[in-house]
From TrEMBL:
Molecular functions per Gene Ontology: ferrous iron transmembrane transporter activity; GTP binding
Organism of this sequence: human gut metagenome
UniProt cross-references to Gene3D superfamilies, sorted A to Z: P-loop containing nucleotide triphosphate hydrolases
Residues annotated as domain FeoB-type G: 1-161
PANTHER family: FE(2+) TRANSPORTER FEOB (PTHR43185:SF1), FERROUS IRON TRANSPORT PROTEIN B (PTHR43185)
Protein name as catalogued: Ferrous iron transport protein B
InterPro entries to which the protein is assigned, alphabetical: FeoB_GTPase, G_FEOB_dom, GTP-bd, P-loop_NTPase, Small_GTP-bd
GO CC, one annotated term: plasma membrane
Length: 229
């Protein structure tokens, strides 16, 4: 039971179409994704139910889309959430990601439209970003299907293991292995800094403190500023 969650125009419906074999119209205007769309497919011996939820920028429960997505996550309790993000616009897209993390859901992040990020001359150390967020991230190009199979391999690993973090808060070794394998395949000539060192001397992947405690930290900092000013 998998749910697709992401901003409008992040390629979410394209990913849904290629995974489920559906032919939903792609776009972001009235009537395209006003309700959830549901599809089914089989992969590696698993029968998947995949739900394409309405595009939303947050889960603050102000707009109809926000309310719908939030209620689906709470009431339907998907086994895994695929947070689809536009790789070329991470700053805007990752706000929703932090809200999903706050809900303590099991999830994997599809760094979609990765080809557009590369076409702009940029690179992204997504293994390091996975480390900071404590969530597996994989590049995908939903228009062509690139990365979709690897994405569902990771989803199966998370489903089988019950979580992507172990009891010490470290990313499980098999998930980390999938990320590194895909990283080496996607960008074989780029080490992104310290990954070779990490393989030689493994370290746990811990979620960055600001992801879980950001609001409290910000409030504490403001209170300290107020007291000493």
């Amino acid at each position: 039971n998998v749910a697709l969650v992401g901003n409008p125009n992040c390629g979410k419906t394209s990913l849904f179409n290629i995974a489920s074999g559906s032919h939903e119209h792609v776009g972001n205007y009235s009537g395209v994704t006003v309700d959830a769309k549901e599809g089914y497919f089989d992969f590696q011996g698993y029968h998947f139910r995949i739900v394409d939820l309405p595009g939303t920028y947050s889960l603050s429960a102000y707009s109809p889309e926000e309310i719908y997505v939030r209620r689906h996550i709470i009431n339907e309790t998907p086994d895994i959430i695929i947070n689809v993000v536009d790789s070329s616009n991470l700053e805007r897209n990752l706000y929703l990601t932090t809200q999903l993390i706050d809900m303590n859901v099991r999830m994997v992040i599809a760094l979609n439209m990765y080809d557009e990020l590369e076409a702009s001359g940029n690179t992204l150390d997504y293994v390091k970003l996975s480390q900071l967020f404590g969530v597996p991230m994989l590049p995908t190009v939903s228009r062509s299907g690139k990365g979709i199979e690897q994405l569902f391999h990771v989803i199966i690993n998370i489903y089988e293991g019950g979580d992507f973090l172990d009891h010490k808060g470290r990313m499980r070794s098999e998930i980390l292995s999938d990320l590194r394998s895909w990283h080496q395949e996607y960008v074989p000539d780029h080490d992104f800094g310290s990954h070779k060192e990490e393989i030689e001397q493994p370290r746990g992947f811990y979620r960055h403190i600001h992801i879980n405690h950001g609001p409290e930290l910000e409030r504490s900092i403001e209170e300290v500023k107020r007291v000493i000013s």
